[in-house]
Structure formats: structure tokens, C-alpha cells
Amino acid sequence: GMPAVAREYAEREGASERPEPRVGDLREPPVTERVPLVTVPFRSLLHMPDDAEKVRALSAARDLLEPDGLLVFDVFAPSREDIEETDGLWLEREPGIFERAGWDLHGRSLVLTVRSDDRTAATMELHWLSAAEWNAVIEDAGLVVEALYGWFDGRPFEGGEDMLWVCRRPR
Question: How far apart are CA 106 and CA 108, in angstroms?
């Protein structure tokens, strides 16, 4: 239903000719044209279970870019404190929206369950990497890191949990 929601929103905002929502897999996007910018929002790359799948998704994004085109994505690597403070607990993140984090520090994965009104709505598994490991995966995908930020406001990355990567496809 998300493509329909996106189309309705674009029409309301007077931009119906701009977006062309498509449903597909990050590793094999249903796109043939080349573009100057690809974004992979909402920590989507964390759904890839291993480095090979992350490289595959980043390589697919690279192939969509024009030469010198940019890829922007966000990920996280949790702090030990965040893991200790949230593991196994139901926490209300938004009014009426609860999350339960099941952390596997050794396997570096998170099983996140989100619910509302006391019923399970969704469960997902996320797999994180350190900044140095992301850098290696990005290089393996044939991209060049232009910048690494600590948040969407452009603050410098200083080793915190959040990472916003800006990568370039070389000529």
C-alpha cells in the first residue's frame, strides 16, 4: 500500500509528476535509469544479514548512479549502554507505540518487535557493523566515502551510535 500512499501525498502537495514509487528489493532494484542521487533511508541496509548482502545492495545502488552521483544512507551501531538499558524491555517510543529490543551482542543483531494496543504489529531483525566495517563494505561495493556524519543535522561523527554516510560513485 505504500506506493498508493506516496502517490496520494504527492498529489496533495502538487508534485504528482515527480515521484514514481516502485516496490522491489534493494539488492535488485526495479530501476533502469541512472540518477544523480540514491537514498536508502530508515536504516534499511541493516536488514541485510551479512556483509555480502550489504555489498550486494550497495553495489546495486552504485549501478543506479551517474558518474560522481551520490548515495546517502543511515545506519547505527548500538552502544553497550543502549543495549543494557533496553534489552528485553517493552518501551513506549511514541504514544501508543511500544518496542521490545532483543539484542545479540555476540552476533551483532537486534530482533525488534513493535506493537500497539497490546498486539504485535511487526518483528524485524537488524544486523549492525562498526564505522570501520561499513567503510570496508562501501569500498567493496566500489563506492568512495565523501562524508560520515553523526546525525541528519550534519554534526560530525564522533563514534556515536548513529551514522549517516554520503558516498560517491567514481567516474
Answer: 5
Q: By the 8 A CB rule, do 143 and 58 touch?
A: yes
Q: Where are the alpha helices (DSSP H) in the chain?
A: 2-12, 51-64, 80-86, 131-140
Strand positions, DSSP E, the chain = 35-40, 65-76, 90-94, 97-104, 109-116, 119-127, 144-149, 162-168
- What's the confidence (pLDDT) of residue 124? 96
Computed on alpha carbons and rounded to an integer, the radius of gyration of the chain in Å comes to 17
CB 142 within 8 A of CB 170: yes
pLDDT recorded at residue 121: 83
Burial code of 96-121, b = ≥16 C-beta within 10 A, e = fewer? eebebbebeeeeebbebeebeeeeee
Q: Which three cell numbers stand for residue 48?
A: 541485510
Please tell me the pTM assigned to this model: 0.88
Confidence of residue 134 (pLDDT cuts 50, 70, 90): very high
Residue 71 corresponds to which cell in the numbers above? Answer: 548515495
